[in-house]
Design brief:
Four Helix Bundle (Hemerythrin (Met), subunit A), mainly alpha, elongated, 81% helix, 118 residues
Length: 118
């Protein structure tokens, strides 16, 4: 899979977060990313659990929550995958989630590698 860091990350959002932090912009960004890093596995586990139980309503809600959190830090490809999971689960789609979740985990890892370089 060949994906550029520009495909993974919205650098305008990252820059905006740094600017919100003022003189401590880099520290503020790190703090926000750390909070996201704590939230991500919780939401991912919820997504997996709701899928396992075929609870598509809550699957949609958890995917929506992770999408929003991802958009807030500029993780646009992660958010895009979450959006697909959200829409599919709202629409009653019952297949394809394992591939989407696998892709989500891979893209998340690549995104955090790139964010760690900032």
């Amino acid at each position: 899979m060949s994906i550029s860091k520009e495909d993974l990350i919205d650098f305008d959002i990252v820059q905006g977060l740094k600017e919100l932090g003022g003189d401590d912009g880099d520290d503020f960004l790190k703090e926000i990313l750390d909070l996201y890093a704590e939230q991500y596995p919780i939401l991912l586990n919820q997504i997996k659990g709701f899928l396992k139980n075929s609870d598509y309503n809550n699957l949609s809600k958890s995917a929506h929550a992770l999408k929003g959190a991802s958009l807030n830090i500029g993780a646009k490809e992660v958010a895009s995958i979450c959006k697909t999971i959200e829409i599919n689960s709202k629409s009653g789609v019952q297949e394809g989630y394992l591939d989407l979740i696998s892709n989500l985990e891979s893209i998340h890892s690549l995104t955090f590698i790139e964010l760690g370089k900032l």
